[in-house]
Amino acid sequence: MLTTILQHKQQEIADRIHQLDTWKAQAADRSDFRSLVTAMHSGDIAILAEVKKASPSKGLICADFDPVAIARAYEQGGAAAISVLTDERFFQGSSPYLSAVRQAVSLPVLRKDFIIHPSQVYEAAAIGADAILLIGEALEAPQAQELYDLASEIGLDVLFEVHHQDQLVKLPTNFGGLLGVNNRDLSTFHVDLQTSVTIAHATGRAVVCESGIGGRDDIESMTRQGIRMFLIGEYLVKQPDRAAALRQLMGQS
Ligand SMILES: O=P(O)(O)OC[C@@H](O)[C@@H](O)c1c[nH]c2ccccc12
């Protein structure tokens, strides 16, 4: 699946590259970046709440999808930051969703996409993102370093995602972003929350536990094992009262 997505991304990058100069100018104009790193390091439990309409593993997650309403509920419920999927083909996301969400909330907003080319980093800043995701599995080490350096130069924070311990060698030198562990194997879609714990213990780093959180029990089990940062999509999107669901996940009700 990842290979299919990345092939399609190459095409998308080629189709959009004519906008690069505009994006560079818009990125250079930004001086309003909100820090994802600071937001995720505050509070007892920090939740990066994801605005997610669909996924390759689950299909359509939310039929009456209203990205701004979802993001506002997340902010009301006490999310530390918001993640917005911008991939159109596989996740039914879009850049305009991110721009609209960024305007509607005062939290840092992460652009969740498959970033493999510098033009996408400029594009992220141009559409209003405060941070980007870099996926270890999708990048070679020099490429990861280049994209990280560019993001830092522009003013974007970086969430660097790994799934296996052997991808940690791709972590950029002087890395000052957040280390995320995707509990979902992107080739089999199998989810195991212990993946986060294993990598947190092996590295001695604080990690963002990503994917597969299905309720308060999962959070309690993870916090008992020393994890306090979470990236949660499907579970939250599916709740009738998303703000209340967030408070409950954080143990506030
Ligand atoms: O909906 P979930 O299981 O709570 O997962 C959210 C998030 O972790 C997941 O969307 C994700 C993690 N890494 C990714 C990389 C690309 C696309 C999506 C993702």
From TrEMBL:
* UniProt superkingdom: Bacteria
Q: Where, if anywhere, are coiled coils annotated?
A: none
Instruction: Work out whether the entry's keyword set contains Lyase.
Output: yes
Q: Which GO terms describe its biological process?
A: L-tryptophan biosynthetic process
* Record-level Gene Ontology MF annotations: indole-3-glycerol-phosphate synthase activity; phosphoribosylanthranilate isomerase activity
Protein keywords: Amino-acid biosynthesis, Aromatic amino acid biosynthesis, Decarboxylase, Lyase, Tryptophan biosynthesis
Q: Which pathway does it serve?
A: Amino-acid biosynthesis; L-tryptophan biosynthesis; L-tryptophan from chorismate: step 4/5
Catalysis: reaction(s): 1-(2-carboxyphenylamino)-1-deoxy-D-ribulose 5-phosphate + H(+) = (1S,2R)-1-C-(indol-3-yl)glycerol 3-phosphate + CO2 + H2O
Q: Which residues form the Indole-3-glycerol phosphate synthase domain?
A: 3-249
Give a Pfam family name: IGPS
List the InterPro entries: Aldolase_TIM, Indole-3-glycerol_P_synth, Indole-3-glycerol_P_synth_dom, Indole-3-GlycerolPSynthase_CS, RibuloseP-bd_barrel
Q: Which Gene3D superfamilies match?
A: Aldolase class I (3.20.20.70)
Instruction: Give the EC number(s) under which this enzyme is classified.
Output: 4.1.1.48
Fetch the NCBIfam families from UniProt.
PRK00278.2-4
What HAMAP family does the database record attribute to this sequence? IGPS_B
> What family classification does the UniProt entry report for this protein?
Belongs to the TrpC family.
The protein depicted here goes by the name Indole-3-glycerol phosphate synthase
Q: Which organism is it from?
A: Desulfurispirillum indicum (strain ATCC BAA-1389 / DSM 22839 / S5)
What lineage, starting at the top, does this entry show? Answer: Bacteria, Pseudomonadati, Chrysiogenota, Chrysiogenia, Chrysiogenales
* Gene (name only): trpC
